[in-house]
Amino acid sequence: MKLTTLLAIAALSGLSAFAATNTRSNWQTIVDVADTAAWEGATLDHELLRDGKPTMQWSHGVSTRLTLPTAPKDWTSHSHVHFWVHSRQATKAGIVLILDADVPDTPGMDYYMARLTIDFSGWKEVLLPINQISRVREARGKNQLRNVYFTAAGWENTPNPDTVLNFGSISFVDVVPQMLSLEEFFTALDWSTPGLADAAAAWEKRDLPAAVQATAKYFRERRSVPWRFDPHDPNYKPSFNRGAAEDTVAGKVSVVTVRHQFPDGDIDWLYNHTIAVKELPNNNEWLWQLNRMGFWGNLGRAYRSTGDSRYAKTFVKHLRRWTSQCIAPTYSSGNVPNSAWRTIECGIRLQGSWPEAYHLFLHAPEFTDDDLVLFLRSGLEQMRHLLKYPQRGNWLTMEMNGVYTFASLFPEFSEAAAARQFAVERLHEDMKTQFLADGAQFELTPGYHQVALGNILSLPRLAKLMDREQELPSDFVPTMEKAYDYNLRLMTPNRDLPRYNDSWRCNVVSSLRGALDFFPEREDFRWIATDGKEGEKPGELSTFLPWAGYFALRSSWQNDANYVGFDVGPLGYGHMHQDKLNVIIWAGADELLFDDGGGCYESSAFRRYATSAFGHNTVLVDGLPQVRNQRELDNRVVSEPIDAPKTFSDLYDFAAGSYDQGFGKIEHEPARHSRQVLFIKPDIVLVCDLLEAKDGQSHRYQARWQVNDTRLREPVAGHPALITQREGKRNLLVAPLLSEGLSSRWVSAQTEPEVLGWYVIKDAGPYRPAATVCHEREGDGLQIMLTLFMPLAADTPCPVSAISQDSLRQATVTFNDGRRLVVTAPPSADERMIFAIINPEQR
After folding, report:
1. For residue range 737-790, what is the model confidence (pLDDT) as tens digits?
2. Which residue of 309, 650, 663, 707 lies most exposed, with the fewest beta carbons within 10 A?
């Protein structure tokens, strides 16, 4: 998750123990305190001095903005900007540095930003990497700035009149960081550890080669720390993918579905193929995920099973190149494009690919003593980086899992116990707010729900392996039971989860099988985990998660059931899509009316389409999509449970929600959209959209339905109903019931003038054509659209023979078996639609 709060500034005080060696040079003062005209919004203070000179005082009670009119318009000549700032008290207020790089005639302000929290009193040195000042919207280059200023207002900040800051001069400077040295590494070891006596003696003499040799010998031979397999067992020969291992040797990688081969097998860890190749959409994830070394595990298993030295040589080559090429950012989180040191990658490396590779190659002759110590030096540096820059959300769970794993595997470091305690306490505190009362992880993204859940519970799993269970609070595991409940309650018929927000395919069977390790008394978990062979079937069929705002309506718990998902909730803390009132339909394993997960994290028209209302099953107003203010926390996570209208019964389920915020722009609110969903079990779904102008004007409303097929036909004579034509698979009928005055069309695989009719799958292969069905009507006052959906068994004919509109709000559907469905839309959003099914004998 990329947090909207970009903590780009790292203050130096108190961090020296964790800072690697660095050099500073090429100083250039850019805003001098001697030039009072260079500071607008501040006054010269002759009493509080810095380096014997007066300072500039900025009182937030007087001005909420400090402008630097003479600051350079080109910030590309140096690596860092440096200044000293004094705070009278730690008010916890926030200030934001803004580099205005606005592009005319584009929506919104274009700029770069970095944030500093006033959580200190006295002087603090700030060294800000210029490449960490994050780009917002379409900002021009940092060599084309218009204005530079600090602000205490906006960006989720409320000015605090008690905040008084004094600045010294502001300078550019070049900073060259270096890797954690051998001396710093040996200083970090606990020399009282049994078995390290020879290494300690060599270190005491400052005989570095001997100290390295003795330290490596100790770690190769120690048996006091277990792992998931025994690295000392010569008979351990795990399965592996030979083709993938050969690709790794050859430098062939596939990252976020984009393949590339590095010449001579030499990986350039700071290369991004999606930027180097103009035909590809830019995707920062390519470089980031390359640096997770996901291929090391298979490479190591190939080595253990074959003894082929090429595999070990490749691992060592990767390690040496990475540690020399990717130096830790000394005073910043590294959470920026083109960085190998994002905290999420550090966490993923330390919890998975790095310890796995370490144990697989531990006894490889190619993995020399110097290499082993190099591995430990880098791992220690990454752990310290994570302790210094913890984030929030699913990122934090990966970061702290990495810290706990590394500190558990290498307790020989003096700081290991404190690091484990930090990881446990930070996660224990955060998971109580990160997981809502209904069990949903607050990003409201089922895929990242699994990421957070899995990483959190990796701690008790590892603690049990390491015999450290006493390090965890007694409620650490019980607190997470509700997160498994979420999986059960939201589960689709094929034991997957909806792809809400930036989500992907999830295996609920595997998840609940793992849950039984912690909650063996949950017989409903067992029933799902064993495909009904053991345990007890879950209780209530349909459910509402009032903090997430997700409805899950189902016809049964069997894996061939029909399922309707309906989102009436907030955006989510991260990975959000602008798609309130989105509806999805599954029939067994077939996703018929879909939410695709939004695609790769790339800069492309497909990504923009798939994360907006344009690519979801909701309504546009005058061609404009929903726009909720993402900066307002209440739009991301609700502060109290949602009281959504609902009825669950054996015959039918009813659910409703509304949207009355922006369309096109946050402040533009032309209409209110209310949606009602009626699921008449087992196979009739009715969606009623009530659209009411808020400005007294006439508007054009378009309902979009994303259908998982590219071939549609009209099965009902004289009516614009459509049905998919998936051979050997379930199909979907889409029928607008109030068709008078309604236009209907469908589009597949369109890219111009706009993207329409695509399944933009996330990180799982190329985007594939689908179909977008568009129903549109125009008018003032209240406009109503009423749509029938029916999932159909494979290779069965359309069950509907006729559809008629009886009045402005009523329609009748006649089925082939003689039944009739009469549906009446409500006259307002305060009332519910009603229905009647009339059997032939009742005529």
Report:
1. 999 999 999 999 999 999 999 999 988 778 999 999 999 999 999 999 999 999
2. 650
**In contact, 694 and 672? CB cutoff 8 Å:** yes
CA distance 702 to 774: 6
Sequential DSSP letters for 588-613? TTEEEE-------S-SSHHHHHHTSG
- The C-alpha torsion from 303 through 309 and 314 to 319, rounded to 10°, is 80
- 367, amino acid identity: F
Name the band, by pLDDT with cuts 50, 70 and 90, for residue 631.
Answer: confident
Tell the residue number behind the tokens 């300690």, with chain if given.
Answer: 200
Helices H / strands E in the chain, number of each: 19, 39
Hey, what amino acid is at 670?
Answer: P
Q: Which residues, including other chains, have CB under 8 Å from residue 32's CB and lie 6 or more apart? A: 38, 169
Please count the CA atoms within 13 angstroms of the CA of 633 that sit on its side-chain side.
Answer: 7
Residue 789 to residue 685: CA distance in whole angstroms:
5
Would you say 755 and 770 are in contact if contact means Cβ atoms under 8 Å apart?
no
Q: Extract the tokens encoding 229.
A: 């397999």
Torsion angle defined by CA atoms of residues 364, 369, 372 and 373, in that order, rounded to the nearest 10 degrees: 180
Supply the pTM of this predicted model.
0.86
Instruction: Look up tokens 């009072």; give the residue.
Output: 36
Return d(Cα 533, Cα 553) in angstroms, integer.
Answer: 24
Q: What is the CA radius of gyration of the chain?
A: 30
Rounded-to-integer distance, Cα 233 and Cα 223, Å = 11
Contact, 607 vs 598, CB < 8 A? Answer: yes
3-state helix, strand, coil in the chain (%, to 5): 25, 25, 45
What confidence score (pLDDT) does residue 330 get? 73
Paired sense of beta strands 800-805 and 684-693, if any: unpaired
Q: Which two tokens stand for residue 360?
A: 């697989």
Strands (DSSP E) found in 456-561? 543-545, 550-554
HEC states along 701-767?
EEEEEEECCCCEECCCCCCCCEEECCCCCCEEEEEECCCCCCEEEEECCECCCCCECEECCCCCCCC
pLDDT at residue number 843: 58
pLDDT-based confidence at residue 155 (cuts at 50, 70, 90): confident
The Cα–Cα gap between 725 and 783 comes to: 31
What is the set of domains in the chain, with CATH numbers? 22-177 (2.60.120.430), 236-389 (1.50.10.100), 543-842 (2.70.98.70)
Question: How far is it, in rounded angstroms, from Cα 631 to Cα 548?
Answer: 18
Q: Residue 668 in 3-state DSSP?
A: coil
d(CA 504, CA 762): 6
Contacts of 38 (CB under 8 A, 6+ apart): 31, 32, 68, 69, 70, 71
The conformation of residue 109, written as its DSSP 8-state character, comes to -
Give the burial class of 92: count Cβ atoms within 10 A of its Cβ; 0-12 exposed, 13-18 middle, 19 or more buried. exposed
* Amino acid in the structure at residue 414: S
DSSP calls for 71-104: S-S---SSSEEEEEEEESS----EEEEEEE---T
Q: Write the DSSP symbol of residue 112.
A: E
| Residue 806 phi, psi dihedral angles, 5° rounding | -90, -30
